[in-house]
Amino acid sequence: MATATPNLLQPPNFTCVKSLSESSALTSIPSTYTFTTDPNQLLAFEPQHSIPIIDFSLLTSGDPDQRSRAIQDLDQACLEWGFFMLINHGVPESLMTGMIEACRGFFDLTEEEKREFQGTHVLSPIRCGTSFNARVDQILFWRDFLKVFVHPQFHSPSKPAGFSEVCLEYTQRMRKVAGELLKGISKSLGLEEWYIDKTMNMDSGLQILTVTIHPYAMGMPPHSDHSFLTILIQNGIGGLQVQHKGQWFDVNPIPNSILVNTGDHLEVLSNGKYKSVLHRAVVNNKTTRISLALSNGPSLDTVVEPVPELSHPLKYVGMAYKEYLELQQGNKLDGKTCLDRVRIRTM
User: Fold this and answer.
1) Per-residue DSSP letters for 9-69?
2) Which domains does the chain have, with CATH numbers?
3) Least confident of 43-47, 94-98, 136-140, 298-302
4) pLDDT level of residue 157 (50, 70, 90 thresholds)
5) Which residues share a beta bridge with 258?
6) How far is 303 from 265, CA to CA, in rounded Å?
7) DSSP H helical segments within the chain, as ranges?
8) Cα dihedral sign, 33-333-164-217
9) Beta bridge partners of 280
10) Which residue numbers delimit the Fe2OG dioxygenase domain (predicted)?
11) Region 335-344: what's the mean pLDDT?
């Protein structure tokens, strides 16, 4: 059984990238922030419309034929891409915009104010910092982040004013969207629509909001997410790419759409039918990018393992979600290395 190693994630008195980028004394990027995307992998392929589009209103339709076709579309999106754009989702554009602006307000706080929410452990309910895991990263990533556990208990920074209220409304609305998507995925796997919800204890499921700010982004390496699904919105600044059949595709979202990608635990649950998708942030030297990722996973104590009906041959061993989180978040960001810990090797 793999064991999680580090608990502490940030060195004391971290310096935010945002503060560095706005400093009048900064004439060049510090040598510790030297990450760039591999030039041999920079090429991205079009057309963008190849990225699947799922109509949420059809997925939740009372018309059995419409819903059946939408579930088939969802199955193909998870099977072929592990990524899709969700339209007609019912979440007000004003709420999404308001949430982005509230997050911008958090990063505009002074370093002293943000340090109140620094956190020390991957399971700290509120944690902000820089890079990914500054204690083990050999190269620091030019980004600041805020991570907040918003379910089953709702947590929120007390600053700036109004952040907590808009965060609660936003995460509750997105949680309902995720729940409907998981119903559709259960059906697409040939299971009862409540299968994932019941067997994975989603009523007590861990929902984590991760807000990332990239001032003049220098990129992030390819990686997959934990959890079942990640729901993402951003402030209209490009830079996100997803890998599909070994090629990188630019993501240019339809206005007011929500981006969704499959995570490691959906790959485990489906015994490899649905793969977690590799994605990355690429260089952007024009302006600041803000992204809001909402991961939706099981309860911390739930052991995630392949569905029995899909487990022949068995490709993954089970692991408690809490242990997986500690393992992934406490080490370097590196592709799917954490998922490899639960993958069964065949000769």
Assistant:
1) -S-SS---HHHHHH-TT--S--TT------GGG--EE--GGGS-EEEHHHHT-S-HHHHHH
2) 43-342 (2.60.120.330)
3) 136-140
4) very high
5) 86
6) 10
7) 17-22, 56-59, 64-80, 93-107, 111-115, 163-188, 195-199, 264-269, 321-329
8) positive
9) 241
10) 204-298
11) 84
